[in-house]
Model the fold of this input.
Amino acid sequence: MVIAIESIKTYTTQVDFWHWGELSALTSLVDEARHFCLELIISGKSRLECNKQLQSKFNINKRWSSSIYTEVQVIVDNINENRNNHIKVIEEQIKSIKSDINQRIKQIKKHKKEFLEKKGFTKIKDACSINAKQRQSTQLQDAKFELHQKKRRLHLLEKQLEHIKSTRANYVLPDSNGFMLVGSKDESSGNESAQFDYIESADKFILSIRTPYALEERLGGKYIRIDGLNFKHGKHELIESISPRCYQVASKKEAKKWAVGYSAVTLRFYWKNDCWYVAASTNIHLPDITSEYLSGYVGVDLNADSVGWAVCDAQGNLVEYGDFKCDLHSKTSNQREAILSDAATFIALKAKQYNYPIASEQLDFSAKKKQLGEKGKKYARMLSTFAYSQWNEALNSACQKHGIYHKKINPAYSSQIGMMKFMSMYGMNSSSAAAFVIARRGRRFSERLPKQHHLLPSKSAYTKVNKVKHVWSHWSKVSKSNKCTPRHKYFTARLNRTRKVTSFCQLACIVGESRLLDNPIQLELFEVGVTPTGNGAVSVAASRSRKNKRVKVSTFVQMCLDLN
Done:
């Protein structure tokens, strides 16, 4: 499979100090035009009307006005989107609190009823009087106090939602520390108001900016020439972007024709740390995706403190597995980004080693994170630390960089399947076992129930008759039945074994003078939740003692195992 993709990259360099005055003059003019354009957009003016008024008021050409309008319109759209998202979050919080309040009211009524039936009272006091002595509060009083706090929070959120919907969004432009020149594919060098040139002999870039009409007399010319730009990173990508290329475009008669164009190069000039910088953003061609998705997969399972991974071949067999530790607790956003980037790079390099694509979980915690106020502190901390969006961005970036195909997989019952079928079989932990299930699912392998389980195994994962249930319905029953089973107990599961033992046996083995077992026997392991039955010998393998004790007489050791 070969897929060509593009990605936007930004490269920055410093501007020489003798151009600082020209850039400051442009910044002051553009900032005033941006605020005027914002008022026009808020009042409902169209793009054509905004361009006309900007050109006449500030004496600038159409390209400058178009660039200013595009920048301001993007800011307004982002503010509106953030406002709508804020309203949705508050509505979800109100819905969650109302559900929690209804449950608390039912619990309080049930508690009152049980208390009255037990004591034989007809009425119970809601709370103590003000003049009563200080004493420890009852459970009923604590429950009522928590209910009262929930109702207070519900009232505050409802008033906040009402206020946000009744008022207009607050449109604020960022600080005027620079200006932007929006790129365009139809213009030479990929920009409407600037021209990029590369001097091969000097190994430098030369940038020519079209001066607005209002500043031509002040700056002394139609163009502002900025030479000596040295992009240490991305030099070859920028040279490729400003070079003309041929591409096919669709005409009105639905026939494609060849045209000459450029890659869009957006320039942003900004003042930072007492210096002017220029940032050039352009589309670059990433390495072609050449992963052979029919040969195998690398599965990834994200946890709060680690990233489990496993490699399966074309037949679904385990090749390699591991666990990449990621301690994200009490870390800053930059530290989290660096840790997740290292983990994503490791996974991408592992996939590149086998030339396999990557399969990861398709998760969405936005709805659960809106209900953190009704959950416990431990759950809220775990969910807040679970940086799935950052991890997804880091993994996508690493896959694009190394040309690896990334596939999203439904992770339904992956942890339960991994613990019951593969964790004890291969000696994995739960994270790498779930990653192996995800890798097999990416390769479209089905996971049936073990044969010795008390539930009937499904005959096929994808049903042909409506009466036959999907295999996930059986795994749902297994997950509910083993919900309280600790994870370490799954290591005692050895499936597809035929040997049975009694529920209680006495084991005897002879330990000679050399402190070694004369008749070592293996211990049979069975599936979790199944009581072993039948007759058979069971024993334990004992290790050799490190201390050399003097034993003249042979010693008999008797061991008892309670398999219940």
